[in-house]
């Protein structure tokens, strides 16, 4: 029955034929460059900064990639409902499960492409403006390994939040709610972690936001207040909890999407 | 023409909560016709269509398209169907052509040449590469028809297709449907609450009210044949005419009697021979509207 690549192609067309996608992409490329130049101009030549340090600092801008992925995911299903095009989309020789799968895959591809574009821009900017000086390696390993690990931890958070947004988009069919709640989780996660700390409450270690930001297990390895000793949480534990959440989000998305009567 | 029906609805029931929207609807749609689905607003037309195309689940019963169950084998059954459910909503930020490309990719075996062919059929050649947001409602409707017939469906389902169209648009739509049924052998299933529209468009009409099938009527059959029909004579003295013929009834300055074609001429000459003045002769056909109102009893929305 047809070609699944056709569905992927369609979803890509619906993302990349919109101006806003290119604005997002433009910002992800432009911001590291602009910030890199500003820092380079204000750095005295007597005290050079390592390109690795700059790249690490510029990683903050990766937050933008998270926001854009959340927005795309939030729109993926809900927009078909608000446009009314879902009525034409679902009456093709494709099961709803496969149509949702094509949308999900395209969301993942978008998040990955944006991340790659960001990392490449970040490294290119840092190394063309700053000297390649060795830096103190916190995580162990090489400079490049540390930088990639840093991005990877952020990418894991991005995926969790994006899938959360995708679920809300499917369940509530409004992108506003999906974007709002996802961004709230992303921004307020640290504050919530402080309030519902797993140090204070034992059950809190099962909460989603307490298991995000896996880098804490690297940074706090040597610290006196080691998370593992105070709460019993470990990298493996958090990864498992995150997986459970992600699977739950996906199951909810699929069940709701397949069962729903389309009346809009 | 009358092989196995292209669509069979068998005891189809839809319940939402405790409310029964569609109540054990059983209906066969014969192949090669324009089949009308008529009912007042809220009678369950759109719900039935949504169940046929898999947008809504079926509570009980099943729908078979070309003998394939929509419930059990949706992907296969729906491959025979092209549809517009209510207004054709398109991706407004894409061009008409990109929209067609989008839907062509979702059906197996739709080459680029077919897309061109369909564009020509609906007469959108000049504007197909413009964004859909610049289209008028009539043009969107044309694009809607185009996406529905891209994969040469055996069955075309149109839900209230004339909503919001101007008389010219309605006329054009009617012409497409004729072309499709006659040249491509497509069966068209069209729902509407506009009676006069259905009368012009359809071969057969099924009437539904409050989720129940009331009647299926062959419109073409009632027009042909040499049956007796009520004929109205406008004469100067209806009472005298009544005496002369001994049957029928007088109504105001009209005289109405049940006659077939030959008898009409005969009666006319007898009336004239008897010195009556005949001003006009007219066969009284009850319009679909009269029949519809009669059947639905003036229709309270249930």
From TrEMBL, chain A:
The keyword Magnesium does not apply. It comes from the Bacteria. Keywords: Membrane, Transmembrane, Transmembrane helix. The keyword Transmembrane applies. Pfam families: ABC2_membrane_4 (PF12730). The chain crosses the membrane at residues 21-40, 60-83, 104-127, 147-168, 175-196, 235-257. This is ABC-2 type transport system permease protein. The lineage of its organism: Bacteria, Bacillati, Bacillota, Bacilli, Bacillales.
UniProtKB/TrEMBL annotation, chain B:
Residues 7-235 form the ABC transporter domain. GO terms for molecular function: ATP binding. Coiled coil: none annotated. Keywords: ATP-binding, Nucleotide-binding, Transport. Pfam families: ABC_tran. It comes from the Bacteria. SUPFAM superfamilies: P-loop containing nucleoside triphosphate hydrolases. Belongs to the ABC transporter superfamily. This is ABC-2 type transport system ATP-binding protein. It comes from Paenibacillus shirakamiensis.
